[in-house]
Amino acid sequence: MRVDVTNISNAAIMNLEQNMDVKQQLHLSAQQWGWAIACFYYPCNSIIPFASGYHSDATTDMFLEPISTILLKKTSAPVWLSRIMVTWGIVTCCIAATTSYGGLITARVLVGALEAGYFPCIYFWTFWYTPAELAIRVAALYSMSSLSGFIGGFLAYAISFANGVLSGWQWLFILEGIPPIVMCIITFFILPSYPEKSNWLSAEETDLILRHLHKDPPTIHGKTFDWNAARLLSTDPTFYSFTAAWICAGVGGNGIGFSLPTVIKDLGFTDSRMANVLTMPPSFASFALVLILGRLVQKGKLKPFPVCIILDLIIIACYVVLLCVDTVGVQYFVLVVSTAASGSLYPMLWPKRVQALRGTAMAGLGIGLLNASAQFSGILGPQVFSPAYGPSYAISYKVSITLLVGAVVFHSLAWFFMHGPIQKHSPRLAQRVQAQTQLRKSDLEEKKHIDYVV
Fold first, then answer.
1. Which residues lie below 8 Å from residue 107, measured CB to CB, with a gap of 6+?
2. pTM value?
3. At the topology level of CATH, where does 3-50+58-192+226-448 sit?
4. Is the bond into 391 cis (omega within 30 degrees of 0)?
């Protein structure tokens, strides 16, 4: 669970009435607080090509998500994921010692840089599972992220009563930084490596797993990076449709999540402690919905692309209600619904994105770059939902609606490229998509345009 991501949103309003909240103690403006949240995502997201020959002081943080995906293969999942957990836990604890805006920014950037690679661990799963089998597993991964918001809200409420020599927000970072340090030890000894390197599998079992995988899957012996794979990825239309959809849905749908405790408090019917408690129902609703939809998609009862488009439309409808209705109870209910819907968007499409990537190098680079694009939600979301736009957040909702309309368009394009009737209307484009992905010709035919299990 990623309480290190959600805890800063909870810390924003802890002990606000006692003038012991982090923003007052560090003398932060609304704009500075927005940057304190967003800076976590910059190390994960920078998009200047690391092989272009360009260098600057910032290039140490460039492309950390894709690079982390590559290093995951070069080392092993137990080693790399344990490294992520122990380092982000240590630096999260250190945030409690910050006394200035600069110190907070530095610590948050370090946590973001050290944690880069947590979600690209989906790449590791592609060595074990087919895209169809990834659905429920990706849903479980994202549901844990949602559950972290639920647990974080409860912990923020409880820890706020520990306000004393150390402020409540300082205790929050210390206590939430310890679990990943402990879990890294368990992960190192329990998490299996790749099928070819797992000593607990017999040769026959390893061969069965490898033969079970989809066409041209990633393998431990495949190239970690290949310029030809990068070129093919850059000419793949699904790369651009998925990336644009990821950004629009991320900022438009998930952006509110980075300021949810503040938005709830600004509804005006609760104090800071209860505002953190009231972040729990939206997080739990997201947790439950992700698991339910993931299971239904895996069983073939729902199709990922239509589900995502419907979720986009639900979030748009929720934001329209928030713009037009002033009743506090209705606004809170709509926030619960929109948070649940937005938290379900990414996990529904991850298996489809994996299906559209062919080979070891292309899968590693594609997954890393797509996850890097997802970080725009963390970079721009806190700016869109800045406290400066509260308490109504009318501008925030209007910007989000515009982005979600774009998400509908790009989700539809990705659906068309992968399963639409392009074999009939654009044979050359269909041939290119088929050559660069794991799709078969039958998947591109009109009669198969909503099939999921291939």
1. 91, 94, 95, 98
2. 0.72
3. Growth Hormone; Chain: A; (1.20.1250)
4. yes
